[in-house]
Amino acid sequence: MAALVALGATPVPKIFATMEEGPIPGGMNPGEVWLESHGRSLGHFVAGTWLKPPGRTSLECREAATGRTAAVVPAGDSSDLAVAVAAAAAAAEAWAGLGGPERGQRLTRLATTLDGDCRGTMGALLALAGGRPLCQTFGADLDLGLRLLRVPAGGVQVPGLEGWTPLGVVAVVLAGPCSLPALLWKLGPLLAMGEQHGGTVGDLGDSLETLGTTGDPGDKG
């Protein structure tokens, strides 16, 4: 024990007394680094671009565990929804025309990307938004969410769905704050079947992960 204290490690009894998390491997919280790289000012993510309409009231995205402001986003209105719907409509025909197998492969690549180089950043952002310890966030939020994306991506590659006709642009309505699994539970099957996501309707003020993405998941926005 004395040797651990000399090395600067937190004594085990103190860990059990405070139940605090240990340092993140690498020293820097990748979620905080990502937010800082965006000036802690996000926007409406539409067709691979952060849109920040001028003159809008800012909504605070708060860290669930401490209540501090992690980032701000502009309040949305009907004009923002119209922009998102137009972007989704522009991409809808091409996305539907890919066919089930190709859509499934693209969604699988998206899940692989999020589970690869982006995993640390995604997990850290979800921990900030949800208030879970990072180790629980990976399993309860990120891994579960990615499974909810991979399952329909795999199912749509099975022969027999060629006759299905996509409906087009759809909106996803979720109560906020919204978890990543809740979002992908709705989006995964819709995107796999060829629909386009026209936006997420819900309370965006308290949750970073509910920022809607619109467009082709195969794009590198």
Automatic annotation (TrEMBL):
GO terms for molecular function: oxidoreductase activity. The gene is Aldh16a1_0. It comes from the Eukaryota. PANTHER family: ALDEHYDE DEHYDROGENASE-RELATED. InterPro entries: Ald_DH/histidinol_DH, Ald_DH_N, Aldehyde_DH_dom. Gene3D superfamilies: Aldehyde Dehydrogenase, Chain A, domain 1 (3.40.605.10). This is A16A1 dehydrogenase. Residues 50-194 form the Aldehyde dehydrogenase domain.
